[in-house]
Amino acid sequence: FGLEHIFASCAEIRHDEHGDHLWINLPEGEKRIYYKGGGKVNAVGAITGMSFGTVTFLEFNLLNKAVIEEAFRRTKASSFRYHLAEQNPPAPNHPNLETLKPFIETGSFKFRHWRPQDNPILTKQALKEWEAECKVSEYLYKRDWLGDRVMPEGVIYSMFNEDTHLSKGIIGKPVEAFFSADGGQSDATTCSLNLVTWKDGKYYLYRMANFYHSGTDTGVTKAMSEYAKEIKQFKEWCYKEWSWLPKHSKFFVDPACKSLSEELRVLGIVTTKA
Fold it and tell me: What is the pTM of this model?
C-alpha cells in the first residue's frame, strides 16, 4: 500500500473480475497491481489463468509452493519478465527455495541480504546498539549484522559455530561408537553417529555424521518404516566410510518414539531407550 501513497494523485484502489488491485494512470498508459494472498493451500486458484508482467513475493518462505510456481508461469509472455522475492531467512532445505533453482542455474538470479547499515532511518547510535545485541550470539551476528547465509535458527544452532566446532581430524584412540536417534513426521527425524576417543587421561566426543529430515521444512511426510530403512542405510554408509570404527555399543532411540524403535527392530537393529 506504499504505492497507493506514492502515486496518490494518479492512483486508486479498484476491483474487477480478477480481484482487488491498485489502478495507476501513468503517462505511458494504465497499470494494474493486483495483490493476492498466497499462503493457503487453495490460494493458487486466485491467479490461475491470469497474465502478469512482473511479480513481487512478500514473505516468500511463507507462501504456498504451488502459488510461487504458478506465478512464474504467469509471467512467461511478459516483455519485461522480473520477479522480486522478499523473505525472512529460511532453512537451507526449505521447499520454496527449490523453485529458484532454474533461475540460479541459468545465471538470472541475484541474492541480496539486507543489513542494518542498509536502512537509512537508523542512526549511528541505533546501529551501535543493534550490533551489541547481535554479538551475544555468533549465529545472529553473522546472519543479521554481517549478512552471511548461515544455518537455521534455534537454541542449538545459535551456539554452533562452523569455524570452531568442526574438525577435520580426531584426537586420541577410538574406544566407543554409538548411535542416537529421534523420530517425527512433522518434526524432524534425526540419527547421529557419535565416537568417543581417549588420550592422555581425557575423553573426547565427536559427532561423525548425522541423518536429518524434516517433514515441515521439506513438505514431504514419510512413514516411520521408510525412515527406519533410510537410517539403516545411513548406519551402513557410516561403517563403509570409516571402516576402522569400533562396532557401536548402543543404538539409542528416544523412548517417546516407540514406532521408530519397532521399525528398526524389524530391520534387525536392536535399540536402547535414550
Answer: 0.49
